[in-house]
Design goal:
Elements lengths: L1 E5 L2 E3 L5 E8 L7 E7 L6 E7 L4 E4 L7 E6 L4 E6 L8 E8 L13 E2 L3 E5 L2
Parallel strand pairs: 2-11
Antiparallel strand pairs: 1-3, 3-8, 4-5, 4-9, 5-6, 7-8, 9-10, 9-11
Length: 123
């Protein structure tokens, strides 16, 4: 299983970005894909998770209502739409996969990881 993130960059507060996670080696819509982030000096935290075949999505409280996770089966890509961005959203964002369930979006339960993409929210 390989995952490659893209779409990070610089955004202003209140702005939007779309992150992509290109998945290979497994069907994204039959797997569990999570998005995580690690801010400077912080622990890696779960942001969102999707189990597309069961119609399940899960979000951290800090991003609920602002971020949206989705799967495009045709391209085997998982997206994370980041809206109403805040400076505290600045972090390296990672996607990861497991074959179980979202497990509360806890990083230790995810086995395959991408290299990450930087998101910076600043004026």
């Amino acid at each position: 299983v390989q995952l490659v993130e893209s779409g990070g960059g610089l955004a202003q507060p209140g702005g939007s970005l779309r992150l992509s996670c290109a998945v290979s080696g497994i069907r994204a819509d039959y797997s569990v894909i999570g998005w995580f982030r690690r801010g400077s000096g912080k622990e890696r935290e779960g942001v969102a998770c999707i189990e597309d075949r069961y119609g399940i999505t899960l979000y951290a409280d800090s991003v609920k209502g602002r971020f949206a996770i989705s799967v495009d089966s045709a391209s085997n890509t998982v997206y994370l739409d980041l809206n109403d961005l805040k400076p505290e959203d600045t972090a390296v964002y990672y996607c990861a996969q497991n074959s179980g369930d979202c497990y509360g979006i806890r990083p230790s339960f995810f086995t395959a990881w991408g290299w990450g993409t930087q998101v910076t929210v600043s004026l």
